[in-house]
Amino acid sequence: MLNSWKNQHPATTVLRLWLGITFIYGGWNKATDPGFLDQGSPHYIGAQITGYLSTSPIDFILKHMIEHATLMGWGVMITEFAIGFGVLAGYSLELLSLAGVGLSATLWLSATWSVKPYFLGSDTAYMVLWLALFLLVRGGKSGRNKSKLISGLTDRREVLRLAGVGVLGVVATFSGRIFKNSNPNPESGLTITTVATFPVGSTMNFQAASGEPAVLFRTNAGVFAYSAICTHQGCNVAYDSGKNLLKCPCHGAEFDPAQGAKVITGPAQTPLASIKVAIKGDKIVQI
Ligand code: FES
Question: Cα(135)–Cα(12) distance, rounded to whole angstroms?
Fold first, then answer.
């Protein structure tokens, strides 16, 4: 492990330190965010993905991820940790650098695609840094080894080491979930409407803090809201006041807002994500 830091180009040292530490921090940041896997939070990974649908060029892929957003969230955290630990340890640097390129490219095409001009979004820079690390590591190999594109996959010890950083990624992710911080909604208090203009019995569409479309209800029991993104494949649901259901125009899924937006008619399998709202003074806010 320590040997991997000797006899390498200073640029490789800088890149390994920066990328390794940053990816571990990225994993920790998500793992300690109580909202990241909480369907009612504006930080929920599913809410983030749905927010990207209107701008991302890979929306046709993202919409299939919505149904499995929580699983994706676990995968992203574990992968970020594993890549970070592996790069610092010096295991299969080529393979992990390419994984870094892939992850950064995916984040660019989804999370930061709408950032203009492009250089203000950091994912493009990370994609290039990972590519530079790949080329540096590959350039430093002897001719024979160079012919193996991914040497880590042909060496049993290297495969075991990679499995080890994967396990370390799982342990770090669970540790982060245990040490979740106490600031779940830093941008809480987003005003949706006023109490006076939204009497009991009202329904309205609004844009949630994550950018996703949402539907707000007020009954005698109080106010509640759901994401309008269908959990099947991401179409926008609409409220049918005749049936008192939220209906999806794409494949006919129906959700009951009076029962936590549970599925009444498929093909959707999971309820719509709930969005936390409350009456604060004379306003109705997302919290
Ligand atoms: S996207 Fe298929 S039912 Fe909504």
Answer: 10
